[in-house]
Structure formats: C-alpha cells, structure tokens
Amino acid sequence: MASALHNLSSYDPSKVPDGSGKVIGIVVSEWNEEVTGALLEGAHNTLVKHGVNADDIIVKTVPGSFELVYGAAAMLELAEVDAVIAIGCVIRGDTPHFDYICQGTTQGLAELNCRAEVPVIYGLLTCNTMQQALDRCGGALGNKGDECAVTALKMIDFMDTI
Ligand code: DLZ
Yes or no: is domain 22-161 CATH 3.40.50.1370? Predict the structure, then answer.
C-alpha cells in the first residue's frame, strides 16, 4: 500500500531480475484513462529499463476494470507470455457499484493468479477520490505501474528458479 512512508516507485534496482527475453502482457482498462495511461507508461518504462524488449510487451485495452479478468484470462490462453499485468483504476462514486467492481475484479484476478501457469500482477487502483489515484500514478506517492513491472520480473524469476 502506498503511504507517506512507502513510495510505489522506490525499489532496489539491484534486486530486480533482468527481463531480457521475457514477454509481458499488459491488459489496461479505458475507464479513468488519465490514470490508467500513466500507470501503463510507468509499467512499460520500468520493464524496458530492466531489459525487456519493447517489442516483447503486448498491450491490450479493455473497456473497464471489470473486464480485466476476461482480458487477462484471454491473454494467458492466447498469447505466450511470461507474466500478465492487469491495470485499472476504480474511483468511488455515490452507489455501492464501486464495491462490486473492486471485489469482482480483485477476486477474479486472484483466482486467475492461482490457476495460471504464469503470474498475474494486480495493478488495480481502488481509490476514494481522483486525487488519491493521481497520487499513485506518477504523483506524490509514485507510480503503481512501476511497482507492477518490478513485481512481474520478480515473480518470473521466482518461477524460473523454483
Ligand atoms: C461502470 C463503471 C463505473 C461506475 N466506474 C468505473 C471505474 O471507476 N473504473 C473502471 O475501471 N470501471 C468502471 N466502470 C465500468 C466497469 O468496470 C465495467 O466496464 C462495466 O460495468 C461493464 O461491465
């Protein structure tokens, strides 16, 4: 969780496995595009910084965060990827809709993560306000996209070395 004490973009680069030759799928939601676009940029830049070839990053968009589960499942089935990163942003509104989307998407991604042969990385921001989201996509608290990229490379290495 990002906080005043933890910036999503701060990590020890010496502990990030090299991503050369790895293929990463990224599924990104169009809802709150200002935020998800910045998360995607963070993830993409960090993957490339750690050796992933830009041509080996497959990006597909889905309409909303709820569709991330289907999109990630399709990518796992149809593309030869070493990891999938799911990127979305849900902002609380006036109705309980927020809770259902967050819960459904989170549970769906968690189930995929357990079943899939390669890791599924959780890049869903669940925020009470747009400001909280902006703080976490390159603002005051860093960029969750960076964190997702680092996590993907670490989990690929986990699988390679287990
Ligand atoms: C419907 C909806 C609403 C109200 N809010 C968001 C949101 O903040 N972030 C997001 O990613 N998606 C939202 N959606 C769309 C749903 O995720 C989904 O696309 C629709 O319910 C159609 O399945």
Answer: no
- Note if 44 is an active site residue: no
Does residue 64 have its Cβ closer than 6 Å to ligand 1? Answer: yes
- Which residue among 6, 44, 50, 97 is the active-site one? 97
152 close to 47: Cβ distance less than 8 angstroms: yes
pLDDT at 21 over 70: yes
Predicted pLDDT of residue 4: 67
Q: How far is the CA of 117 from the centre of ligand 1 (A)?
A: 28
C-alpha 81: how far from chain center: 14
> Per the confidence metrics, is the pTM higher than 0.85?
yes
Q: pLDDT for 113-122, tens place per residue?
A: 999 999 999 9
Q: Which has the closest alpha carbon to 156: 5, 19, 11, 13?
A: 19
Query: Which one of 27, 30, 31 would you pick to mutate in the ligand 1 pocket, going by the greatest count of ligand atoms within 8 A of its CB?
Result: 31
In the chain, where are the structural domains located?
Answer: 22-161
pLDDT at position 6, please?
87
Q: Where are the beta strands (DSSP E) in 31-149?
A: 57-62, 83-91, 120-127, 137-139, 142-143
Q: Residue 28 is inside which H or E element, if any? A: strand 24-29
pLDDT at 148 over 70: yes
The predicted structure's pLDDT at residue 109 = 98
